[in-house]
Design goal:
- This protein has 94 residues and is α+β, with helices and mostly antiparallel strands.
- It has a single domain (2-93), classed as 2-Layer Sandwich (Alpha-Beta Plaits).
- The chain is built from four helices and four strands, in the order βααββαβα.
- It has a four-stranded antiparallel beta sheet with strand order 2-3-1-4.
- The chain is globular, with a radius of gyration of 14 Å.
- 12% of the residues are buried.
- The mean pLDDT is 96.
Length: 94
């Protein structure tokens, strides 16, 4: 299992959905788990992006599947980045 940082930006349609149904965020998290992607941490942020998520997934293919599924809905734009824990980074660097 690997870690990924997912930056997401709501579209106009996504903001409308969130305003009408704020709990939708948690519903999406459950959908991600069904795709094999587990949300470890989730933050609402200010700035260019609306959310920062730290997720765990078995491989890049699971993240690609998630990105296509969520992106096709037209409510969010995603930027996905693989991540290494610092301990693993140090271990790989030596």
């Amino acid at each position: 299992m690997g870690y990924y940082v997912i930056l997401s930006k709501l579209t106009d349609e996504g903001r409308k959905t969130l305003k009408k149904k704020p709990g939708r965020v948690m519903e999406v998290n459950k959908e991600l788990e069904e795709m094999g992607v587990k949300v470890k941490e989730q933050f609402a942020v200010m700035g260019e992006f609306d959310f920062v998520n730290i997720v765990e997934a078995p491989d890049n293919e699971a993240i690609l599947k998630m990105s296509v599924e969520l992106g096709s809905r037209g409510t969010v734009q995603l930027l996905s980045m693989p991540a290494l824990k610092i301990e693993e980074f140090i271990k790989q660097s030596t």
